[in-house]
Design goal:
It is a single chain. The chain is an alpha+beta fold. It has three domains: about 80 residues, no CATH class; about 60 residues, Sandwich (Immunoglobulin-like), CATH 2.60.40.1590; about 170 residues, Glucose Permease (Domain IIA) (Distorted Sandwich), CATH 2.70.70.10. Strands 11, 13, 14, 15, 17, 19 and 20 form a seven-stranded antiparallel sheet that branches. Strands 3-2-6-7 form a four-stranded antiparallel sheet, with no helix packed on it. Strands 1-5-4 form a three-stranded antiparallel sheet, with no helix packed on it. Strand 13 and strand 14 form a beta hairpin. Helix 1 packs antiparallel against helix 3. The protein binds zinc ion. The site of zinc ion (ZN) has 4 residues, from loops.
Length: about 350
């Protein structure tokens, strides 16, 4: 099969998936169970979404049907949905992703930095676009700026602003021994923090992410606890920087996109962990695994197994903690995943 034919095949699968999920949102009452294997579990969610969002469901159905009518392999390259399927949902908020156009893509790719860290830049149609991870600690009251350096060395600043986002707070009172680490544990944690910090700052400039959309790394109910501010015994802890997906121990954990395994290890808080580098600072992290089925340096395809769900590290039960990083900032994984 030629490269182009492969791309078209892949594009078609992405589109069919997208249309299926759009149609699922728009189905009349009682028909959801017939859509496919995933629909059974989704019936209550479908119903509740329809209850609050009927107008949008209608819009979805119309655009999906109009879209199906235009499907044809010859026109695939030009379809806007293919392009949309490659990009995260933009959300210029703490913990979100800002997409900034940097000018015509006809000239060589510019490089960009935000907060001193290199930022992912890729072409969208006719323009270069910076894909900026906004840290959970970012202050929306402050003006933001991206430093853009053209291939010829000229530098400019592109200003942008953030919207505020209030994440929920969880206050817990627990026995002090559960929040205060022993001297040995603290030393171990500090060592691991330095190591993981260096790993998560990885920026592989030459590696081009195949896509900025991710596949679900495991099947199971997902929490919407990204950004949750946790306060233990009146002491603020770092906010929750990922998505928790509940699944029994042993459930396969799949790589969310094509990439290279950057790090594996058994860490105090994260337990058995795999970190995958998708290129240009776009990383995914899989924690609390009961088994690691990938090796450092290994190339992995989207959907390839990298481990199994477990309860290693500091957890209360088996689940997958899944994080996404851009320019060394953890951002909301839901912006990259298919709708729940
Ligand atoms: Zn978690």
């Amino acid at each position: 099969m030629s490269e182009d034919a492969k791309k078209i095949g892949l594009g078609l699968r992405v589109i069919v998936k997208e249309v299926k999920s759009e149609l699922r949102l728009a189905l009349p009452e009682g028909t959801a169970a017939r859509v496919g294997p995933a629909a059974g579990a989704g019936v209550s969610r479908v119903a509740s979404r329809r209850a609050t969002c009927r107008y949008h469901a209608q819009m979805h159905r119309r655009s999906a049907l109009a879209f199906l009518a235009t499907l044809g392999p010859a026109s695939l390259g030009a379809l806007p949905s293919v392009a949309r399927a490659q990009w995260p949902e933009a959300a210029a908020v703490p913990g979100g992703v800002a997409l900034l156009e940097l000018g015509a893509a006809g000239r060589p790719r510019p490089s960009a930095t935000y907060g001193g860290r290199p930022v992912l830049v890729r072409a969208r149609g006719e323009a270069w676009v910076a894909v900026i991870g906004i840290g959970l600690a970012a202050d929306p009251a402050q003006a933001q700026s991206l430093v853009v350096r053209e291939a010829d060395g000229r530098e400019r600043r592109v200003a942008f602003s953030l919207q505020g986002k209030q994440y929920a707070e969880q206050r817990l009172s627990v026995a002090p021994r559960h929040v205060e680490l022993s001297k040995e544990d603290l030393e171990r944690y500090e060592r691991e923090r330095a190591h993981l910090g260096a790993v998560l700052r990885q920026f592989s400039a030459a590696r081009e992410p195949a896509t900025l959309r991710l596949v679900m790394p495991t099947s199971g109910p997902r929490s919407s606890s990204f950004g949750l501010r946790r306060v233990f015994n009146n002491q603020p802890r770092s906010p929750h920087n990922g998505m928790d997906i509940a699944a029994p121990t042993g459930t396969p954990v799949l790589c969310a996109a094509e990439g290279e395994v950057l790090d594996t290890g058994d860490y105090f808080f994260n337990g058995q962990t795999v970190i995958v580098d998708h290129g240009q600072g776009f990383l995914t992290l899989y924690c609390h695994l009961s088994a690691i089925d990938a090796e450092r340096g290994q190339r992995v395809a989207a959907g390839a197994p990298v481990g199994k769900v477990g309860a290693t590290g500091r957890v209360t039960g088996p689940h997958l903690h899944f994080s996404v990083y851009l320019n060394a900032q953890s951002v909301d994984p839901a912006l990259f995943l298919p709708p729940a």
